[in-house]
Specification:
Blueprint: E1 7-10, H1 17-20, H2 35-48, E2 50-54, E3 64-66, E4 85-88, E5 100-107, E6 113-118, H3 126-132, H4 146-149, E7 161-164, E8 167-170, H5 184-200, E9 202-205, E10 211-215, E11 219-223, E12 236-243, E13 264-266
Antiparallel strand pairs: 1-10, 2-12, 2-13, 3-12, 4-11, 5-10, 5-12, 6-9, 6-11, 7-8
Length: 269
């Protein structure tokens, strides 16, 4: 992506609301619901790079169904609903995380907004940038990765910010960053980054047939709270993750990370 926005929306693809059937009650019961959109999303992902999946998430599927699930309302995962899904880098705990994230809207009757904020629009002083560029704290696996959360290895400390030829980039997930372990000056700098990301955040209300493409090195994304009905009409997105061959936008030190034992499955054209 060549802009400081770090995101764009593809619009106008047809969605058959009736034909898709009810919103699944959870990813595990989605089966082949709206399966033609799995194909569409993978075709788009392949045009942008190499689609990836994770052995430890949604049984290794390349396309995920993002729906509210009973019992998960207050988690910091895509299955939540009634809490703010905090802005975050997708799979921030892993060095092999996606470069691009694709979110396709199947259903959004309640106009639930996806939030997005680009690090290239924030304003931080040089001292804060220097602090956040140091590997001080780890980012832990989120609740969607049960096996990774029990990994026995020492969590690697990672940088939140770093500079590339095209501009600043970030690796950020406050819900899974143990900030209580950090010195006070680091926590203060992190809080100022959080406030700046909130200041520049935009709300994107996806409609059926829209595909939001997010640069995962530049933009953090989240979701506003909503009240699920669990009646088959709730918000329903499909998600694909993409690595871009040849992109050099991350610190070399990430190559030494263990990734909490999680292996990526990569689809090569």
């Amino acid at each position: 992506m060549d802009t400081d926005d770090g995101l764009f929306v593809l619009r106008g693809l047809p969605v058959d609301d009736d034909g898709n059937g009810p919103t699944p009650a959870g990813w595990a019961t989605a089966g082949d619901s709206a399966a033609e959109w799995d194909v569409i999303l993978l075709l788009l992902a392949t045009a942008m790079g190499h689609p990836i999946a994770w052995e430890g998430q949604q049984e290794g599927r390349f396309v995920h169904n993002i729906v509210p699930a009973p019992g998960h309302e207050e988690e910091q995962t895509g299955a939540s609903s009634t809490v703010l899904l905090s802005p975050h880098t997708e799979d921030a705990f892993h060095p092999g995380r996606a470069h691009l994230l694709l979110l396709a809207c199947m259903r959004n009757h309640d106009a639930v907004a996806t939030t997005a904020a680009s690090v290239r629009k924030v304003r931080l002083d040089a001292d804060d940038v220097a602090l956040l560029s140091r590997p001080v704290l780890p980012i832990l696996p989120d609740d969607a990765y049960a096996e990774a959360r029990s990994f026995a290895g020492e969590p690697p400390r990672v940088s939140v910010l770093w500079q590339t030829e095209s501009g600043p980039t970030l690796r950020y997930d406050p819900a899974y960053t143990p900030l209580d372990r950090a010195p006070a000056d680091y926590r203060a700098a992190y809080d100022r980054l959080t406030a700046e990301l909130e200041r520049v955040s935009v709300a994107v209300v996806l409609e059926p047939g829209d595909v939001l493409v997010v640069d995962n090195d530049q933009v953090v994304h989240g979701r506003v709270p909503f009240e699920p009905r669990y009646d088959g009409t709730d918000r329903w997105l499909k998600r694909a993750s993409v690595r871009v061959p040849g992109r050099r936008s991350r610190p070399l030190s990430e190559a030494d990370e263990h990734g909490y034992g999680q292996a990526a499955l990569v689809a090569h054209p």
